[in-house]
Design goal:
Elements lengths: L8 E4 L5 H12 L3 E6 L2 H15 L3 E5 L5 H15 L4 E4 L14 H29 L2 E6 L12 H6 L2 H13 L4 E8 L5 H14 L3 H10 L9 H12 L10 E4 L8
Parallel strand pairs: 1-2, 1-4, 2-3, 4-5, 5-6, 6-7
């Protein structure tokens, strides 16, 4: 399938590991030019080097806290200066800690809002003028199955991430006539370090092995297994492609059938 992404400029946030890194790799495989960021200078530089070596990709990278509004502005300005355009944004951020409600704190609620919702707003605000000038753009936000059905002990994610589909739908309505689409990808249980941390947390609470928790999650899916990050990345690449031009304001579940609703 021709995705039409060759030489497009794709910004991928939180791209040094997990689904963010898999997404950067998927865009590199399509011949896109990449701008990637993460909090760790060492990790993002290593990711950029790996992408250049494996895919011969054109990669711009920078250490960045996605919750830093001014930092996001400087980053996008640098990307636009280097490439002259911004075509695709993949808004992404690390997940907040797993806690029950009575263990949550006001400070953590604020931080989760800044990292998992406000950061996407910062990025979209900065890339949107470039997409408007080109009359073409793709914005894809990575959220979680938790936007469709709550996940035990993920109170922060269940609550804050649910704002992203509403944001994407609102922006799709406002900017759809300008050739820009806005969608959300909601992964289910996916084999990342974040999943291992959550499994370990729940296993300690239940007095079982971590692998028992992962096996239970796998049994809850229609496919009988957890997803791989590359499978989530493939869905993101499709939504960013020319082939997805009539898909906007939607939430695409990549969960192996874990969601039980209609």
């Amino acid at each position: 399938m021709n995705t039409g992404l060759k030489d497009r400029v794709a910004v991928v946030a939180a791209a040094s590991q997990g689904m963010g890194r898999a997404t950067a790799e998927a865009f590199a495989a399509e011949g896109a030019r990449l701008a990637i960021c993460s909090r760790s200078e060492k990790n993002i530089q290593a990711t950029a080097a790996a992408l250049r070596e494996k895919f011969k990709a054109d990669v711009f990278c920078q250490a960045l806290d996605v919750a830093d509004e001014k930092g996001v502005r400087r980053f996008v300005e640098a990307v636009a200066h280097k490439y002259g355009r911004v075509d695709v944004l993949v808004a992404n951020a690390g997940g907040p800690p797993a806690k029950g409600f009575l263990a949550t704190t006001t400070e953590e609620w604020r931080k989760t809002f800044e990292v998992n919702l406000l950061s996407s707003i910062h990025f979209i605000r900065e890339v949107l003028p470039h997409m408007q000038r080109a009359h073409w753009g793709r914005v894809v936000a990575i959220t979680s199955l938790s936007v469709k059905q709550p996940i035990p002990d993920l109170l922060y994610s269940n609550t804050i991430r649910s704002g992203l589909p509403a944001l994407m739908r609102s922006l799709a309505n406002e900017f759809g006539r300008e050739g820009i689409t806005f969608n959300t990808v909601a992964p289910g249980y996916t084999a990342t370090d974040r999943l291992k941390e959550l499994a370990h947390h729940l296993a300690q609470q239940a007095g079982v092995e971590t692998k028992d928790i992962v096996e239970r999650w796998a049994k809850d899916t229609a496919t009988g297994r957890v997803a791989q990050p590359a499978e989530v990345a493939d869905a993101i690449v499709f939504l960013a492609s020319e082939r997805a031009s009539m898909i906007t304001g939607q939430t695409l579940l990549v969960d192996g059938g874990a969601y039980k609703g209609l």
